[in-house]
Amino acid sequence: MTIQNILADDYAADGLPMRLIVTVILLSVIIGLSSKAVSLFLNDVNEKKLKGEIDLIEKRAAMIYTQGGARDIDDPDDFSGTMEKIHVEIPDNSAFVVFGGMPSRDGNPQTSGNLYTDNVFYYILKDGRVQTGSSIARFFTNIPGQPIVLYPGEYDLTMELVKNKNGTYVKIE
What we know:
Blueprint: H1 3-8, H2 16-67, E1 71-72, E2 83-90, E3 94-99, E4 120-125, E5 130-134, E6 139-140, E7 148-150, E8 153-164, E9 167-172
Parallel strand pairs: 1-8, 6-9
Antiparallel strand pairs: 2-8, 3-4, 3-7, 4-5, 8-9
């Protein structure tokens, strides 16, 4: 077989389009599966970051709550409360985070809490998953009984131990 015969032999060219189509399909499947895996990996990383931020808030609030030294919010002259400032960043894969309330049926944050759910916290991710937890600390905002709702973004939170006729709370602003 000479070089001219090899160049003139076109039997292998008959199967070339089929090989090309199979290669393109296999490459598309591999790229699609890889992009899905990367997306799931990034969502897991963001969820772990969110859990870390929530854990930071909960642990610091529990520490303040157990140490005591609450300020009486009904007495305007009382300035003795334990106070701490922390910086948190809620990742954008979460819809919102709530401290001091239970998840509602419609998926929106509640506007009011009660004495039985003021130690509950939860978060809802944009994909609809809900995770709840509880703390020894009881939470509220400036308005007693209203849960704290944090949307994605950065926050400089001030946590203060306060008390009123209903008990002792960690007020988060």
